[in-house]
Design goal:
By secondary structure, the protein is α+β, with helices and mostly antiparallel strands. Strands 2-3-1-4 form a 4-stranded antiparallel β-sheet, with helices on one face. It folds into 2 domains: 183 residues, no CATH class; 73 residues, Alpha-Beta Plaits, CATH 3.30.70.120. It has 11 helices and 4 strands. Helices cover 58% and strands 11% of the residues.
Length: 282
């Protein structure tokens, strides 16, 4: 799956970014710079530039993660070289539509990188630098990646105009959204924390009307220091209005907090749901 993700990412760079003069951040952006000024093959430059970074990362990364990084780096370098050899590069004619190019490049790149990160791999480059800074200095990896991308994109202005740079930023934004979706999973959900003195009645209605499991959490009131029961339940986004309606019917003064759940695994989400009758649960 890491190799497949690198293949999709490499295809996006070779088929869309390069022909339409869209820049990129990180090591891929440096490879684009080398290709533009000196005509160096992107696959070769990516591989060579990653070698010192992999050696540097050996001291701070576990063997398993390092092995996945080496595999991802080699795969990306291979596919950046491979896609240039087959005619698919000339078959996709976007007529230099920069908006369409940015949207498609961001979608393909985000999907490819999302697969790589979902299966605990990296594509090398600035990912290694970010991981080292996080482990050694406690700096957020996201901030390091953003800094590296900003530096490379700024240097890319040496051969790109502002228009192409802005479309590159659009592609980067789409990439981040698609990558997060692929990496975090497709089973998005919402978690509800419900505080009410009528927790038993609310829990019973959630069980009967939604067929969802829930959990009672012990809590201590901050003002009166009295013991309470909190309901925690995870539902799909489309079930939120029904839960709010059920809570309001039982206790209009209940406190409800809705939080975003990036991924939900288990019965009702990734396992087969229990058969439900039109009006009551069987």
């Amino acid at each position: 799956m890491i190799a497949l993700g690198c293949a999709i990412y490499g295809l996006s760079l070779d088929m869309i970014s390069v022909p339409n003069k869209l820049a990129d951040g990180g090591l891929s952006g440096i490879s684009l710079l080398l290709r533009h000024f000196w005509g160096i093959n992107m696959g070769l430059s990516t591989l060579v530039l990653n070698i010192p970074l992999i050696i540097l990362g050996y001291r701070f990364m576990g063997k398993r993660l390092l092995a996945y990084t080496i595999w991802g780096t080699a795969s990306l370098s291979f596919f950046l070289w491979f896609w240039r050899l087959i005619p698919i590069i000339t078959q996709l004619n976007l007529e230099h539509d920069l908006f369409l190019s940015a949207a498609l490049a961001g979608t393909l790149s985000g999907f490819g990188l999302g697969l790589v990160f979902r299966f605990n791999g990296t594509s090398g480059g600035t990912d290694i630098i970010a991981r080292i800074c996080q482990l050694k200095f406690g700096i957020s990896s996201g901030k390091i990646l953003l800094l590296c991308d900003a530096i490379v994109l700024f240097i890319s202005l040496s051969y790109l105009d502002i228009k192409h740079m802005m479309y590159t930023l659009l592609a980067s934004f789409i990439l981040s959204k698609v990558m997060d979706t692929v990496q975090q999973g497709a089973y998005t959900a919402r978690g509800l924390i419900i505080i009410s003195d009528k927790y038993k009645e609310i829990g019973k209605m959630i069980d009967l009307k939604l067929d969802r499991g829930f959990t009672y959490l012990k809590a201590l009131g901050g003002y009166q220091q009295d013991e309470k029961r909190i309901i925690y339940v995870v539902v799909s986004p489309r079930e939120i209005p029904l839960v709010k309606q059920l809570v309001e019917q039982e206790d209009p003064h209940a406190f409800v907090n809705i939080i975003e759940v990036n991924e939900a695994l288990g019965e009702g989400f990734t396992y087969k749901q229990k058969h439900r009758h039109l009006f009551i649960r069987k």
